[in-house]
Amino acid sequence: MTKIAMKTPLVEMDGDEMTRIIWQMIKDELICPFVDLKTEYYDLGLENREATGDQVTVDSAEATKRLGVAVKCATITPNAARMDEYHLSNMWKSPNGTIRAILDGTVFRAPIVVKGIEPYVRTWKKPITIARHAYGDVYKNTELRIPAPGKVELVYTPADGGEEVRATVQEFDQPGIAQGIHNLDASIASFARASFEYALSTSQDIWFASKDTISKTYDHRFKDIFQEIFDQEYKERFEKAGITYFYTLIDDAVARVIRSEGGFIWACKNYDGDVMSDMLSTAFGSLAMMTSVLVSPHGYFEYEAAHGTVQRHYYKHLAGEETSTNSVATIFAWTGALRKRGELDELPELVAFADRLEQATIATIEAGKMTGDLAAITTLENPTKLNTRDFIMAVAGRLQA
Ligand code: NAP
Ligand code: MG
């Protein structure tokens, strides 16, 4: 059998723990037998981030600017426990945070809907896609531990030598903590445009929410920019397409989402999107069934699974125990990247292969063969719970057929 040829390589960002194991299996069993895979490989595993002083993460993002399409494995974001576990010299920042800061853009997350995995929320009939702003806020913050009484201020020093502006954050009379965050008008505007464009291209309504009543300057700026861009650039196109833009407060949005039927895009600020996408993916069935793509305003795409490195399963794997880790979202990260590469390079066979691999994955589950997370919640009768490798081999079997 001749393999499908590629033109431009994908940027391949390898990662950590159980997802690193799955990553290799997907390449070996589901892709390389069919595609003459070309990638530029970056090892974002924590050991190599430590060895390179995290330069590899920056390099992989720069490569994405050059090549256009990346596929990323889940990676560990170090915390105090990981400092000891991996003997780190530095608590390296979240690779996703670093990559998003370099590429800018918006993350779209949509659940993979299959027959037999029903949402926990009875009223949900259609998928809910989260559009997560991927720049700034708490992910690019500066934090201070305040050890003793003293004053914390925000200071703006104009580059043109104009007058300094100061605002008191807090007069501390005791120890505490403080945080500085920022965002950029241009980034918020591209977030708004990306969200409106995605709504048009998928013919779905779009919601946006923030806490503008409390955050009268910061969050309010988001609300204003969305409204200005909508009124100036999208109002008529939305009317023609029969879709709507709806703004409300974030807590009201959360309540309405639960009562909704689904079938819309929910644009979220960075932190809201982080939290709400985990809530939605679990409510739609499993965290392992959520796809994720970072779309930058410059036309770069980075595909990944929405879940983490599945640490608990990895320790079982290391202990020689059998695991049943769901590889679906990681498979869809690869198909998303291959399809986009195929579209950009005008390789219809590569696009068709991506479609076939997705169909084989869905058909495997709908035939009752699935990993433990899905077997525990499926409405199909007598599902077969497969281990990590056997699920991937079952998909491979369908793909061969
Ligand atoms: P996680 O890896 O997403 O896993 C949380 C739990 O969700 C798992 O213990 C498992 O539940 C279930 N789960 C998630 N993915 C699954 C899959 N594919 N198949 C089956 N079950 C799955 O989150 P975490 O344990 O909080 O974080 C682990 C590491 O991942 C951390 O170091 C974190 O920094 C990193 N992380 C990375 C990313 C990223 O790179 N995008 C995102 C989030 C977290 P059971 O244990 O009950 O089976
Ligand atoms: Mg999250």
Q: Residue-averaged pLDDT, rounded?
A: 95
CATH level 1 name of the largest domain: Alpha Beta
What ligands are attached or bound here? NADP nicotinamide-adenine-dinucleotide phosphate, magnesium ion
Radius of gyration: 22 Å
Tally of domains: 3
Write the CATH homologous superfamily of the largest domain.
Answer: Isopropylmalate Dehydrogenase
Structural class estimated from helices and strands: alpha/beta
First and last CA, distance: 13 Å
Helix content percent band: 40-55%
Order of helices and strands: EHEHHEHHEEEEEEHEHEHEHEEHHHEHEH
Proportion in β-strands: 15-25%
How many alpha or pi helices?
A: 14
How is the main sheet built?
10 strands, mixed
Shape: globular
Please tally the β strands and state the result: 16
Strand order of the largest sheet: 2-1-3-14-13-4-5-12-10-11
Regions with pLDDT < 50 over 5+ consecutive residues? none
Write the CATH architecture name of the largest domain: 3-Layer(aba) Sandwich
Looking at the structure, the CATH topology of the largest domain is Isopropylmalate Dehydrogenase
